[in-house]
Amino acid sequence: MKILPLVACGVVVFAAGCAVAFAQEQNVLKGKAAFGDWRADRPGAVRLIRPQDLPEPTPGQSASNGPGRAQMPKNARLHLPPGFSAELVASGIRNPRAVRVAPNGDLFVADSRADQVRVYRLGQNGARPVEQGVFATGLHQPYGIAFHPPDDPKWVYVANSDSVVRFPYKDGELKASGGPETVVADIPASHHWTRDIAFSPDGKTLYLSVGSGSNIAEDMGKAPKGGVERWARDKPLGYAWGAEQGRAEVRAYDPDGGNGRVVATGLRNCSGLTVQPATGALWCVVNERDELGNDVPFEYATAVQQGAFYGWPWYYIGSHEDPRHAGERPDLKDKATVPDVLMQAHSAPLGIAFYEGGQFPAEYKGDAFVALHGSWNRGKRTGYKIVRLRFKDGKPTGEYEDFMTGFVLSDSRVWGRPVGVAVAKDGSLIVTEDGNGTIWRVSYKGQ
Fold it and tell me: CA-CA-CA-CA torsion for 316, 317, 323, 325, nearest 10 degrees?
């Protein structure tokens, strides 16, 4: 397979101009100034969005602006900060989604629409795979992947849209030696189908995210049988009912699938789930609801607090009530937890990975990368990039910075839609995108 290094900021011919742009973008964009579109995206652009920046909702006035997918141009350019470059790892994959790195360095990639998990083993001096294989087939829209025990895995866990299964695993295997064992069954599977999983650092807890079955619980009904007050007495805060029961939440299980319990609710679609190495905290990135306007509500990344309620479907970003559910749950007003990092509405964050590698500059250590799949419910296109969430002493500053851009060709055409991010064993960053079915390796060689 031919590797196609893309011209990026940091390559000698562009280094000076990119450095100037990077320096100019250190002014943080706030409020309305942060609500740009793809034309304003560039490495180094920093945004800080706060709850008070929310515009008024405009239900019924939202755009339908899905991307026209284009073939990856032969001269495509991915833009990165100075000193970074991107290389193609693999192409021609039907639907590469979540990516995870095994302890031995192998890349496990969920090829969701092909119903399989693929494996790539990279060489020591670049992105070219020296071996690859199909680890498992016959799955059902696989997405999340996790290894257990985390440091010396004997199992590879895979989250299907309707179940969590595990395969026996020995270090270096490119194909599972046995069939799937169901760990968690009967997960509701319609509409939002991306199920992510992660283990706690001690390996004793398996976390699972389950997205909503709709935009704003249109089929849930106004109240459960017996009334809201009776329902809420013995349920987690903000627990949904009817068609949405058991959805829009993060769950926890023992590694064998037993002892299932709810961690948090009101998370419309937590499509990216991970554990922060510095603190052990569980984090997720969330796709918020549509059809309230170009800039409402904000997407977000947040540490998932035990017992917390994050608003969906009645509230968003704290106590902002969705006008389509006005007056339905006054008991929940002011009980919705405000997320930690707010991002532009309709950016569609999917993957998240904390950087603890040793290859990137020291200031990246402890920060997180998030893949933004891109908007459809916004008049001016946004997302379609990798961003860096800034942290200080293990806590988010609320700022996020454009890191990898260049997937959009015009107002109407897009060639790349980022999905998964993971940190490779050598400290490089692995990125998947499902617009053209490719995997990329981002490395740093210095300025």
Answer: 30
Per-residue pLDDT, 20: 35
Q: What pLDDT score does 123 carry?
A: 92
- Over residues 1-52, the pLDDT tens digits come to 333 333 333 332 223 334 334 434 468 999 999 999 999 999 999 999 999 9
Structural contact between residues 443 and 104, judged by C-beta atoms closer than 8 angstroms: no
* Distance from C-alpha of 248 to C-alpha of 178, rounded to nearest angstrom: 32
Contact 442, 405 (CB under 8 A): no
| Token couple for 337 | 């937890």
C-beta of residue 216 within 8 angstroms of C-beta of residue 325 = yes
d(CA 346, CA 428): 28
Nearest Cα neighbor of 319 from 306, 330, 308, 307 is: 330
Answer for the pair 164, 158: CB distance below 8 angstroms, yes or no.
yes
Per residue, the 3-state secondary structure of 236-302, as one string, reads CCCCCCHHHCCCCEEEEECCCCCCCEEEEECCCCEEEEEECCCCCCEEEEECCCCCCCCCCCCEEEE
- The pair of structure tokens assigned to 181 is 């064992």
Q: Which two tokens stand for residue 419?
A: 């999905």
Question: Which helix (DSSP H) or strand (DSSP E) does residue 349 occupy?
Answer: strand 349-354
Residue type, 413: R
In 3D space, the residue among 402, 354, 361 whose CA is nearest the CA of residue 382 turns out to be 402
pLDDT tens digits, residue range 103-129? Answer: 999 999 999 999 999 999 999 877 899
What percent of the chain is predicted at pLDDT more than 90? 90
Q: What is the sign of the dihedral through the CA atoms of 187, 191, 192 and 196?
A: positive
Cβ atoms of 357 and 423 closer than 8 Å: yes
**pLDDT tens digit string along 304-348?**
999 999 999 999 999 999 999 999 999 999 999 999 999 999 999
Exposed, middle or buried by CB within 10 Å (0-12, 13-18, 19+), for 405? buried
Structural domains in the chain plus CATH codes: 12-444 (2.120.10.30)
Q: How far is it, in rounded angstroms, from Cα 262 to Cα 247?
A: 10
Judge whether residue 59 has pLDDT over 90: yes
Name 53's Cβ contacts closer than 8 Å, sequence gap at least 6: 30, 31, 32, 34, 298, 342
CB 321 within 8 A of CB 333: yes
Instruction: Give dist(CA 433, CA 440) in Å, integer.
Output: 8
pLDDT in tens, 158-184: 999 999 999 999 999 999 999 999 999
Q: Does the predicted TM-score (pTM) go above 0.90?
A: yes
Specify the pLDDT at position 220: 94
